Model the fold of this input.
Amino acid sequence: MAYYVMLTTLTDEGRKTVKENPDRINEVNYEAEALGAKIIAQYVVLGQYDFINILDAPDNKVVAKVAMELGSRGTLKTITMAAMPTEDFINILKK
Done:
């Protein structure tokens, strides 16, 4: 499995949805898992983004599908980046 960081910004419609139904946040996590990605951690953040999600997924295709499915609803926008544990990176550099 591979790790990904997904930065999420709510649209006006998304903010309205979350305000009216805060549990919707967790429902989206279950939907991502149904598409093959596991949500490892999720944080609400202040600033340019509203949420940071750490995902574990088999490959880029699964994460692209998650981002497209969630984004196609018009309630959020995402930026997704591949990530790796620092220990793995250090080991790569030592070889």
Remarks:
- The chain has a mean pLDDT of 96.
- The CA atoms of residues 27 and 33 lie 10 Å apart.
- The two ends are 22 Å apart (CA to CA).
- DSSP finds four helices and four strands in the chain.
